[in-house]
Every structure is written in C-alpha cells, then in structure tokens.
Amino acid sequence: MRTIAVVLALLGSVLSARADIGPKPRMYAGGMDARGDMAGLEIEMTSEEVDVTIEATGEERHEKLVVDAVFQMTNAGEAVEIEEGFPVGPWPNMRDFRVEVDGKAVDFELVNLGRLGGEKRRGGGADEPGDYWYVWKANYAAKSPCRHVVHYEVDLHHRMYTGVETSYVLHTGAPWKNPIGKAVVRLRTKNMPASHVFAVSPTRGLSREGDVWTWTFENLEPTAADDIRIGYDSDHSWEAEVEELVSPAEQYLGAKFRMCARRLEAASRNGRTTMTDEELAHACGALKAAVAGAVISAEGVQVQAFPSDKYPTTSARWAEFLLETYPAVVELAEAHPKSAEAAQVLEAWTPLARALSEGTLGTGKDKVKISARLPGGQKAAFDEALKRASALLKPK
Question: Which strands make up the sheet holding 300-302, listed edge to edge?
Fold first, then answer.
C-alpha cells in the first residue's frame, strides 16, 4: 500500500523528528518552540550547516536517515559550562550518535526526560514512549567561538506503507541568544532515486539543483513553521504514482484526494514556490474534482462518503483531507494571484473549510469533526489559512 500525506501531514509512516542542539534540556525540553531566547544565556548559534541523507539499506521498506551537522556557536559572555542536549524523540532509536566540541569527542548520555503530550512519565520501558535526549557538558571560553559537530543515524523502518515522512527540526535552536545567523540544510538521497522524494517543506528559502534540495535562512528565529519536512516513497517515483492515479481518480473520491496531494507537490519538490502553467492546470483540476460533489445550503455543507470503496472515504478522512490540504489551497492562490483557476479553487474550497471549522460539515447523518488529538500546529495553520483566504476573497 502506498500512502503519502498531503503536504506532509499525518498519513503513512511518520518517523520521529530530529533537531538542533539546545541548551539546558532538563529545563526546556518539550517547550523550546514557545519560549524564545533563554534568559541569562549569552551564547548564540552563529551558523549551522546540516546535511540530511535518506539512504536505502537494501532491505525492503527500510531506509535510514543520516545527519551530519556543524554548529558554530559564539559566547558573548564570561566563561561558562552548561549542559546541552540533542532531542531523540519518543523512542530511543537513534544510532551511531557522536558529538565533538572544538575537535574533541565529548562524553554524553541518553536520558528520558519523561514528558510526552504534557504528561509526566518517569522510567519509560521499551513499550512506553518518553522524551529522550542525548545530553553532555560543554565548556565555553569567555567571548569566544565554539564549534560543535554532530553525527547520527535513524532507522526509517516501515512495514505497512511505502510512503514515509521524516523531518529535521530547527525550532529547538530557538533558546540560544539572538537569531541563528545563517542556517543551511541540504537534502540528498543515496541508493534511492531523487524522484522518490514526493514532498518537501517549507518552500521559504528552498532551492533545488540537480538531486540536492537546499534550504537557506538568515537571521532565523526558528519556529515549527521552519522545520524541514520530507515525504518520500521507498518503491515508486512521484511521476509513476501520478500516472497510476489517473484512472482511479476518475472513479473514486479517495483517489481524487490522493491525486490532490500529488499535484500540489509539483512545485515544491522541484524547489519552486510557483507552478508551471501545466502543473497549475493539473493541480486546479484535481482540487476542483475533489469537492465537486459538495452541496452548500443555509444549514451547512454536505459531502459524500464512500467507506467501502477501493479508496475509502469516511467523515474522518474528510476532516483529515481538508485540514491537510486547505492551507496548500490558500498558498496556491497566493503564489498565483493572476490565475483565475486558482481563485476559483479557493472559492470552491473555502465554504467547506469554514463549515468544518464551524461544525456544519456533514456526510449524510455523520458530522465531519476535527479530532481532539490533532496536533496544535496543524489546527493553527488551518485557522490561519482561513483568515488569509478571507482577505483574498474580498471584492477588489
């Protein structure tokens, strides 16, 4: 089965995110994205350079994420020793972790800080998710630079799906003093064609040259919106997936959903923010077809559901689809302000998005509801997209 989420959402196999080094993780773990610069900390991340490689291992549905990162740090204050950390995730599945400070290997330990979803947990057995970090002590001379080098690998082992999402998180670097001066992240594949990379985000700062994607940020105050997200398929190219979906998308609503995902990826996977005329026509056609059966009335919006189809579509799937896709629909209209087709798509989709937000979207007897377990960032992105759409749709 192949499943890749729309614009890197929650379908398929989602592997834990890896991230920048952060200061004092026992104090700040689980909240680095919300706290900003740490009070009293005089150390800044002057620059970082990260190489991310998705490497096929030769075993079916088993790749690994290989990361090599160099962090140039600068201490603007007095000499200090602090604890630093590198987040592993809910499972201790990072391998071959190494850290050097100014050319010398540093001893580290793996600790479970025990916070997951706001609930404190201690211990954390093999079947209990936790909040794992590698931690070590770093000495900073007064008013001096300091160079950190980090290497690690993560198994991307997936059995049920060929579609995989993984990521590199930048926002855990936020607590350092001042913005990150310059951040460069490069993505490559090894033993797997680059055409198997379906989706990359964000598009801000993104370029592609040959088979290498590069994000470049300057004076970055990283938030979750800046985190690097990657979707790929271990077995199939993007082009092959699109070709195979053409016929099913003429018959099944669920296949139309998947075609929307593929078509929306056309520009970003090529390191662009805008589509070619042909790509835009295909994307708008797929997006219009997916919502063509919606019935809008004073009571709300009704959409169709086909739970027993080859590509099942339920009320829950409608919620996922709209939450995942609507922000991309708004971005499409923003990226192509002169396109009448993109404007028509936004006009067709916005009543459904509003109905979902207001609780008036249904599939016959069932209401389409937003899950309480939805990540807060996804709901925030959806709400923000609705606000931007309102501005775009105002009469000019």
Answer: 295-297, 300-302, 361-363, 366-367
